[in-house]
């Protein structure tokens, strides 16, 4: 049954389009354009959603390049997309109704027509703020609890610890019983926050000396678990200090995604003899392979936010016109935690 749109909806709305692909240069606001377009109408099996919050992530930088990708890329002249939370304002399907809070994959626009199968209804009381549904904590939780299997007393190393995944991973490793948690980041200012607020006992700072030497000082007895969002030198260093039966969960390749060219490949030379003799397990983790995780994570996150045992580090910019700036700042490492835009 079709439920008509609310009468106070505007005739037009704004969306952010890719103006031109990004090569080896930094992402700049000139790579985007904010345009005004007619408000879309939902067809059969679809809903119209007013977007309230959207997330920006490192993968978006990768999708802006001209290189071959194992994922859809952004096209010049067309709107970008990504995780968003909003309210259904018109429905032409059988499941969702106006007023429902939903997660959908079409951020970067103030309103979006979404197939019902791509809109996941959210419990408005599950988390203290709708914005918290855009955390990357499900990835951190799944990688640590399922792929790496953190055990009581483990020493855990998280690369990219100030990012959307890493800023929650330190807290979650501690929640799972880790005895020592170490994180890497790009500045001493961020390192201070990681140690003071986000569950980390020690930090490794890029540019402050060889990563392996810093990691050996931080973990003199070696590491049991790696949650790797970076790759490159940090993955190699983690293997060098891995203890027997160490478990590595690989979730990202920021060293290439945010570097020149913004590619998705993160080649690194690893010592296979160390992997064999220390019986190190390396496994990739992707949230898409665990469809039950978002619900599990939301319950865990809600409990932690309400009792104060977890915090949600994030930067919040306001207005769709700020979305290009948000991604530019993310690629330059300006923020700690998730980077969100309130529309």
Could you explain the architecture of this structure?
The protein is α/β, with parallel strands linked by helices. It is 26% helix and 25% strand. The chain has ten helices and 15 strands. It has helices at residues 58-63, 137-147, 166-175, 188-197, 211-218, 232-240, 254-257, 272-277, 293-307, 323-331; strands spanning 12-18, 32-38, 46-56, 84-91, 101-104, 111-115, 120-121, 155-158, 180-185, 202-205, 223-228, 242-250, 281-284, 314-318, 338-342. The strands form three sheets. Strands 3, 4, 5, 6, 7, 14 and 15 form a seven-stranded mixed β-sheet that branches. It has a six-stranded parallel β-sheet with strand order 10-9-8-11-12-13, with helices on both faces. The longest helix is centred in the last third of the chain and has 15 residues, at 293-307.
Beta strands, count: 15
Order of helices and strands: EEEHEEEEHEHEHEHEHEHHEHEHE
Major β-sheet annotation: 7 strands, mixed
The value of Rg in angstroms is 21 Å
Q: Separation of termini?
A: 29 Å
Coarse structural class = alpha/beta
Shape: globular
- Low-pLDDT runs of 5+ residues are none
Tally of helical segments = 10
User: Helicity, in percent?
Assistant: 25-40%
Beta content comes to 25-35%
Short description:
This protein is an alpha/beta fold and 343 residues long.
Sum up the structure in keywords.
343 residues, alpha/beta, seven-stranded mixed sheet, 10 helices, 26% helix
Write the layout of secondary structure elements.
Elements: E1 12-18, E2 32-38, E3 46-56, H1 58-63, E4 84-91, E5 101-104, E6 111-115, E7 120-121, H2 137-147, E8 155-158, H3 166-175, E9 180-185, H4 188-197, E10 202-205, H5 211-218, E11 223-228, H6 232-240, E12 242-250, H7 254-257, H8 272-277, E13 281-284, H9 293-307, E14 314-318, H10 323-331, E15 338-342
Parallel strand pairs: 8-9, 8-11, 9-10, 11-12, 12-13, 14-15
Antiparallel strand pairs: 1-2, 3-4, 3-6, 3-15, 4-5, 5-7
Helix pairs in contact: 2-3, 2-9, 5-6
């Amino acid at each position: 049954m079709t439920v008509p749109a609310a009468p106070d909806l505007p005739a037009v709305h704004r969306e952010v389009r890719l103006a031109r692909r990004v090569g080896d240069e930094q992402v700049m606001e000139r790579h985007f354009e904010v345009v005004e377009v007619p408000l879309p109408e939902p067809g059969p099996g679809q809903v119209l959603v007013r977007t309230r919050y959207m997330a920006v992530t490192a993968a978006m930088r990768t999708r802006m390049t001209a290189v071959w990708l194992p994922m859809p890329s952004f096209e010049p002249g067309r709107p970008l997309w990504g995780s968003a939370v909003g309210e259904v304002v018109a429905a032409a399907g059988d499941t969702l109704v106006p007023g429902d809070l939903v997660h959908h994959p079409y951020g970067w626009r103030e309103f979006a027509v979404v197939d019902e199968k791509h809109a996941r209804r959210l419990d408005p009381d599950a988390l203290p703020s709708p914005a918290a549904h855009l955390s990357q904590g499900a990835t951190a939780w799944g990688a640590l609890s399922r792929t790496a299997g953190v055990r009581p007393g483990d020493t855990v190393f998280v690369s990219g610890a100030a990012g959307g995944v890493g800023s929650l991973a330190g807290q979650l490793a501690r929640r799972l019983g880790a005895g020592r948690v170490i994180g890497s980041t790009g500045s001493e200012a961020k390192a201070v926050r990681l140690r003071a607020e986000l569950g980390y006992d020690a930090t490794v700072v890029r540019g402050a000396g060889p990563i392996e030497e810093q990691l050996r000082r931080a973990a003199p007895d070696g590491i049991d678990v790696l949650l790797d969002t970076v790759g490159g030198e940090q993955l190699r260093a983690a293997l060098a200090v891995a203890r027997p039966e160490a478990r590595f969960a690989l979730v990202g390749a920021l060293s290439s995604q945010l570097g020149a060219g913004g590619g998705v490949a993160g080649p690194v030379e690893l010592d296979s003899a160390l992997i064999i003799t220390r019986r190190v397990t390396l496994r990739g983790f992707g949230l898409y392979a665990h469809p039950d995780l978002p619900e599990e994570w939301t319950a865990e996150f809600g409990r932690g936010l309400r009792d104060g045992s977890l915090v949600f580090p994030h930067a919040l910019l306001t207005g769709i016109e700020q979305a290009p700036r948000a991604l530019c700042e993310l690629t330059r490492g300006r923020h700690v935690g998730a980077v969100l835009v309130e529309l």
